[in-house]
Write a structure and sequence with these properties.
7 helices, single chain, mainly alpha
């Protein structure tokens, strides 16, 4: 008979990047075991694998947007100054700074997202351990263990890339703000607006990644709702 280990359910938090699988994983057991043979149920790890292409595509687009934004900002730095536009330019730069910091604060090491990502990884480790304790003939045992191991690795990859991107964004923003007064003397307002729009697209790229993660979260939640518990 398989173990009746029942992991504690972790609460889902809307809009969290790549933690839907883990947050849903402890819900694999409620007052009993969920049937692995339920035809209406999709494996959350399969959902993760299917959606990772969208997440990677959004990440690639974000890299291109960062490059475009840097090129336009550098172009702005070479323009002739327009003194009467300084107040507007100040407002644009400070708005950009606030928007970027707003996103970074949601993704820093002490954020709710970072906490959810860590708890999600822990939940996946617990679920993998549960499968490892099942008999060799348990349905989909080896496949589930392999999928969960890959999911654990994906969490580490996401965490590392997020840290790298956060650090790079902070460095670039600091450089731009240090050049603020110099740029004021060498720009035209039209080019400034174009550069700011490109910089804002970087923030939008981060939002695209978050939305891709939300798809994973929603599909995983639907999968769990379709699960049928086996009676004790």
């Amino acid at each position: 008979m398989p173990d009746r280990f029942i992991p504690t359910r972790l609460r889902l938090r809307p809009g969290l990047l790549l933690c839907a699988l883990l947050l849903s994983a402890p819900g694999w057991a409620q007052e009993g075991q969920y049937s692995a043979r339920n035809p209406n149920r999709s494996n959350p790890t399969v959902i993760l694998e299917a959606e990772m292409s969208n997440i990677r595509a959004s990440s690639a687009q974000l890299g291109a947007r960062i490059q475009t934004a840097m090129e336009k900002l550098e172009e702005v730095a070479r323009l002739t100054s327009e003194q009467e536009k300084e107040a507007q330019v100040d407002s644009l730069f400070f708005t950009l700074r606030d928007e970027v910091y707003g996103v970074l604060n949601k993704l820093d090491l002490n954020s709710d997202f970072a906490d959810a990502l860590n708890r999600a990884k822990e939940g996946t480790i617990v679920l993998k351990s549960w499968y490892e304790r099942q008999p060799p003939d348990y349905p989909n045992r080896e496949q589930s263990i392999a999928q969960l191991e890959r999911a654990i690795q994906e969490y580490d990859i996401v965490d590392e890339r997020l840290n790298q991107s956060r650090t790079l964004a902070q460095e670039k923003l600091s450089t731009i703000m240090r050049q603020h007064r110099v740029i004021l003397q060498e720009m035209k307002i039209g080019k400034v607006l174009e550069a700011i729009a490109a910089a804002r697209s970087v923030v939008e790229g981060l939002n695209d990644i978050t939305q891709a993660m939300t798809v994973v979260e929603q599909k995983t939640q639907q999968s769990l709702q379709a699960s049928v518990p086996i009676a004790n």
